[in-house]
Amino acid sequence: MLASVDSCVLVGLEARRVEVQADASTGSVVFNIVGLAATSVKEARERVRSAIRNSGLEFPRQRLTVNLAPAELRKEGSGLDLPMAVAVALAMMRKAAPPRSAFLGELALDGAVCHVDGVLVAARWLRRHGFERVFVPASDAREAALIDGVEVIPCADLASVIAHITGEQPIQPQPPTQPILGTETEAFEHDLIEVHGQEEARRALEVAAAGGHHLLLSGPPGAGKTMLARCLPGILPPLELSEALEVAQVRSLLGDLSSAKPLDWSRPFRAPHHGVSMAGLIGGGAGLAQPGEISRAHQGVLFLDELAEFQANVLQALRQPLEIGRVAITRSGGSVTYPARFTLVAATNPCPCGWAGDGRRACRCTPAMVDAYQRRLSGPLLDRIDLKVGVRRVPLDALASEPKGESSAPVRERVIAARRRQLDRQGCLNAQLKPARLRQMAALDAASRQTLERWAEQRSLTARGFHRAWRVARTSADLDGSEQIGERHILEALGYRLNDVAA
Amino acid sequence: MSLPDLSDLHARGRWPPPEGPRVAIVGSRRPSPYGEAVAEQLGTDLARAGVIVVSGLALGIDAAAHRGALNGGGITVAVMGTGVDVVYPAAHSRLAEEILAAGGALVSQFPDGTIPRRQNFPARNWTMASITDAVVVVEAGQGSGALITAEAALHLHKEVMAVPGSVFSPLSVGTHGLLRDGAGLVQNARDILAVIGLGGEVLDDPLLPPERLRFALRPERDGIVAHLSDVLALSAADIARKLQLPVAEVLGRLTALELDGAVRRQEAGYVRALRRGKERV
Asked: Which of A100, A363, B182, B242 has the highest CB neighbour count under 10 A?
């Protein structure tokens, strides 16, 4: 009496197939689970036994062995409860499992099938690997049904799953979850219309949104840095379907996906506190690493306020994801890669007291203190930020007389148009252009090149800094609706390099 | 604050210097182009009048005063808060060498090898006041170390003078406070010479206005410079608003001027440069 059922365990945003084999044979009455099961899986024994009994099925009074293959793969989590119970039941009934089907779910003692994290990730992976049908907890069915081309069977309890397999009472498959397209009336929490003055920072925000550039806002307390950063999601285009799915997958892994609205079209905005740990920001934890804030901000905005207050090693670890848009984390349980393509908005005071450059209060820091403070921001990290602008404090009494700017909507229109130009031309945003492609896609005329080279020489720009300014110029031209980069675009780009010091 | 034993000063170069009046010029380490230009000009004019210019070798006003004195072919003395073998900030090593080469001196009450310590600088300021006949403050914000030098000078019955600045600038708070309390007004080097008893004997001209660079600017860039101040930083947004131009364009034009050395960034804004960047230490 042998039965075998398919399932999978998650490894980051990928999965590994697990074959759950159940064998009932004569011998003393024992129930063993073998195949490198972690404690959470070993505990399944009691849940499986009770769930089967309480579903009106007979639990074998025999020697029962459940094997989880491949044996070298460590299995964690409660998602294997359902496949184990189904395998045992099928072995008893001498029935074969339905073909190209996989099972996923946790069992309660009464046989109810409960939520597990990462169903969306699992369903996507299973579809790609030739499975046609997935049995998932009823509560997660809408999430799984976001994936095209795979039949989703919502499982309320073990008894109805068995009844479905035997054909006694088939379960209606879950209808595909129709992504409701993002409505333009979507209200953002913050709109640029609330920002008074700050024309320079507003423009920098627009450039950052258009080209996917990282942005540093430097200014005294109360200058409105946080407000500006929070306006960024509202001027970014809504997520594309594929992007929304990537965002949803990370949330699914963390069990953070709303079942009512599994797909969200607005871009994530994450603002971790400066006390955040390495594991919290980058990802980590015991066993297999969990996604961190940078992956939660994937396709959206990561806002780091008080940049100099973050631990130095945490900031250092940001460098790789900033360059390549993903992060690879190795823990005892193995190595996983998470997506982390976000727009970084960092905010900092210009000096420890915060008042350098303020028109009304004198800064009391020594130049050495300011230097040390700036050094804590780590040159290599600053070098990866394309746009650096100073934000000045608008005194409270002058606030009302500051001119109001545009609202977010027209800015967003321009950003969308500029992004379209980039995608049509090169298939990616300007911030992601490699130097070789940059030379192709952003040829400079003699005057522009000369200006850029002059600046680079005066300020001892690194090659990286040189290319960054060039990319920003490409974006400035795209916002202008111009294919050719002019000197004015280069000059604007250089204007966002606050920290370049003349040699 | 107890007065240091002046006979016990450590020195490099010619110490004590040749007989003659000594004037200290001190002020902010992060001055505006205006303050820097004034300090440099006063240094030059005093040196030409035979005054030994004393300062602290720090960034900003101090360096401008030393530099001005050297340009005027004079002797200048740096009173340091570190050992005389520890030039602080290190970027001023060349300036220190030039001071020595021109017959000046580096002096300190601290033994060789003393590294910069916050608590040593007020004592240095007292020393500076005690070896000079007058202290001239150019741009000092609230709590500036230059005000300690002025206070020391007052206690030691030395002349205290100050250069007025813009009433909009936080760097004028300290100097204007001194003026209100009776410090001598400095509009040119002659004001100083008169107070230390040299009258107008040597120097015939009033303070020469800082020579403005005649920038070879393209006309479309020139327009903006007129709207910039040499004291107060204006942001690209301020200027864009004034000229009714898009901020992106103004930012680009300011960058072009910055490349030419005609404007300078000061914190989050721009100021008009008065001298070529290269001359600055």
From this structure: A363
Residue A171 lies in a domain: no
Q: How far is A403 from chain B (nearest CA, A)?
A: 9
Instruction: Choose among A219, A367, A451: nearest Cβ to B59.
Output: A367
Structural domain includes residue A413: no
Q: Is residue A428 a part of any domain in this protein?
A: no
Q: How far is residue B47's CA from residue B119's CA, in Å, rounded to a whole number?
A: 31
Q: Do A350 and B248 touch (CB under 8 A)?
A: no
CA distance A198 to chain B (A): 7
User: Are B269 and A357 inside 8 Å of each other by CB?
Assistant: yes
User: A239-252 burial string, b = 16+ CB within 10 Å, else e?
Assistant: beeebbbbbbbbbb
- Angle, to 10 degrees, between the axis of helix A487-495 and the axis of helix B247-260? 80
Rounded-to-integer distance, Cα A297 and Cα A345, Å = 11
- CB contacts of A403 in chain B (<8 Å) are 241
Domain count, chain A: 3
Residue A182 in domain: no
Q: Are A283 and A296 in contact (CB under 8 A)?
A: no
Structural domain of residue A439, as residue ranges? 433-503
Residue B271 dihedral angles phi and psi, to the nearest 5°: -125, 160
Cβ–Cβ under 8 Å, residues A469 and A444: no
The nearest CA of chain A is from the CA of B252 a distance in Å of: 4
10-residue stretch averages of pLDDT, chain B, 281 residues long = 70 91 94 88 91 94 94 94 91 93 95 90 93 95 90 93 91 94 90 82 48 43 74 84 87 89 81 57 31
pLDDT of residue B241: 84
Mean pLDDT value across residues A160-167? 91
ipTM given for this complex: 0.76
Are both A157 and A201 inside the same structural domain? no
- Which of A254-258, A406-410, B79-83 comes out lowest in average pLDDT? A254-258
**Burial profile B212-247: b = 16 or more Cβ within 10 angstroms, e = fewer:** eeeeebeeebeebbeebbbbbbbbbbbbbbeeebeb
CATH entry 1.10.10.10 includes domain B219-279: yes
CATH of the domain at A209: 3.40.50.300
Nearest residue in chain B measured CA to CA from A501: B265
Which pLDDT value is given to residue B30? 85
Q: Closest CB to B252: pick one of A357, A391, A495.
A: A495
Please tell me the CATH code under which domain B6-195 is placed: 3.40.50.450
- Chain A CB within 8 Å of residue B170 CB: yes
Locate the chain B residue with the closest alpha carbon to A459: B259
Q: Do B268 and A392 touch (CB under 8 A)?
A: yes
pLDDT level of residue A461 (50, 70, 90 thresholds):
confident
The mean pLDDT of chain A is 87
